[in-house]
Design brief:
Strand order of the largest sheet: 2-3-7-6-5-8
Radius of gyration: 34 Å
Low-confidence stretches: none
Strand content: 25-35%
Number of helices: 9
CATH class of the largest domain: Alpha Beta
CATH superfamily of the largest domain: Threonyl-trna Synthetase, Chain A, domain 2
Distance between the termini: 86 Å
CATH topology of the largest domain: Threonyl-tRNA Synthetase, Chain A, domain 2
Helix content: 25-40%
Largest sheet: 6 strands, antiparallel, barrel
Mean pLDDT: 92
Structural class: alpha+beta
Length: 403
């Protein structure tokens, strides 16, 4: 049996122990010691990390009464020293106790019962049995939680017989068992829990609801607690100050300035589209005039091969160019738009139905040049990673039509 020192003192981050067994397992050296400060995880709270006998602790597993420490190498010696990642332990202690507090406040503010919780390195999530909790309820719960944080209430942990524990106003139904470990936030919350917690609510520092998402007919509340919340405030403040400098305005004017810039950008985009459309029309007229005639069709009508290579013209303008060229019958058009390290191409025609199968005609060309693409009889499109292939592509398609 491994003695669980973390229940005696959650703030103890170093210890000495005796190795009881150690063997090579599939994930590392599975080591059992007679006592440990490493919390193996549970109730949504991740396991601790750190070193044991100078080896990195990869994971921790509970196997009956033993706690197995999986190490990245064989431990040397019988007497070993362990050290926890104290910052990680303190962080998750604050997250877990903060979750207890916020869960109770969600229940008190709007009867939002916690269904499940999860702790990660970035955020704490609380899933509640409500599809769309009102913002006012969430704000009230957050306010209540931070008021209790400021009061620095004691957080007590004790083991009780099940019958005695059930006399307490437990927030949720406890697991089965004759003995229950009860975590109490003084005068606020009582819950059966096997996790490690802070000694008083002041260590939670701050509780901040960071977002809500709907999932499976419930709501998942993302919250920041402890130093995470404080650090997040620092990041947001630095961002706000940077935006103020960039936009040359006060903090309260940031939203308006960004809105004005967004509207101005939308206007410029509309103007650019109009300019590009006019340029596409002009480019189409010039390209048609420069186009090359090729064999007449079955009806004897003249046919013309039209092409143009653009540099960063844009998808919509290229489409407008192609449409303008094909506004008259008897035309084949090849349009290529190059960028610094890629190209996009279009081949289309306004010939008679069944007069030219572009997909079959272009397939060997793109294969030879290492391009990709495809389409139907009258329109094929694609791309390539070498902009230098633009002109060889146009010439190859022209040869295919003149063959």
């Amino acid at each position: 049996m491994t003695e669980r020192l973390y229940y005696d003192d959650a703030y103890r981050f170093a210890f000495d122990a005796r190795v009881l067994s150690s063997r090579q397992g599939p994930k590392g050296w599975e080591t059992v010691i007679d006592r440990t400060c490493f919390y193996p995880g549970g109730g949504g709270q991740p396991a601790d990390r750190g070193t044991l006998a100078g080896r990195t602790v990869l994971s921790i597993e509970e196997r009956g009464d033993d706690i197995v420490h999986v190490l990245d190498g064989e431990p040397v010696g019988v007497e070993v020293h362990g050290e926890l990642d104290a910052a990680r332990r303190l962080d998750f202690m604050a997250q877990h106790t903060g979750e207890h507090l916020l869960s109770q406040c969600l229940l008190a503010a709007g009867n939002l019962a916690t269904v499940s919780v999860h702790f990660s390195d970035d955020t704490t999530t609380i899933e509640v049995a409500a599809e769309a909790p009102p913002d006012s309820v969430l704000a009230d719960a957050e306010r209540r939680a931070n008021a209790i944080v400021r009061e620095n209430r004691k957080v007590r942990t004790r083991e009780l017989d099940r019958e005695e524990a059930l006399k307490l106003p437990l927030r949720r139904r406890p697991p089965e068992g004759e003995r229950l470990r009860i975590v109490e936030i003084e005068g606020c919350d009582w819950a059966a829990c096997g996790g490690v917690h802070v000694a008083s609510t002041g260590a939670i520092v701050l509780v901040k609801i960071a977002g809500v998402e709907r999932i499976r007919g419930r709501s998942r509340i993302h919250a920041l607690m402890g130093e995470r919340a404080f650090a997040d405030y620092g990041r947001k403040l630095a961002l706000s100050q940077a935006l103020c400098r960039l936009l040359t305005c006060g903090e309260h004017d940031i939203l308006k300035r960004v809105g004005d810039l967004a509207e101005s950008e939308r206007g410029l985009v509309r103007e650019l589209r109009q300019v590009r459309a006019a340029q596409a029309g002009q480019a189409a007229a010039e390209a048609v005039a420069e186009g090359r005639p090729f064999a007449a069709g079955p009806d004897g009508g003249a046919r013309r091969f039209v092409s143009r290579v653009f540099d960063g013209f844009g998808e919509e303008p290229v489409k407008a160019f192609v449409d303008a060229v094909l506004s008259e019958p008897g035309r084949v058009v090849v349009a290529v738009d190059r960028s610094t390290n890629s190209m996009r191409w279009t081949v289309a025609h306004s010939l008679g139905a069944g007069d030219a199968d572009l997909a079959a005609l272009v397939k060997p060309v793109i294969a030879a040049l290492g391009l990709r693409g495809g389409g139907r009889q009258g329109l094929v499109q694609g791309a390539g990673s070498d902009p230098a292939a633009a002109k060889p592509f146009v010439e190859a398609v022209a040869r295919a039509f003149s063959a």
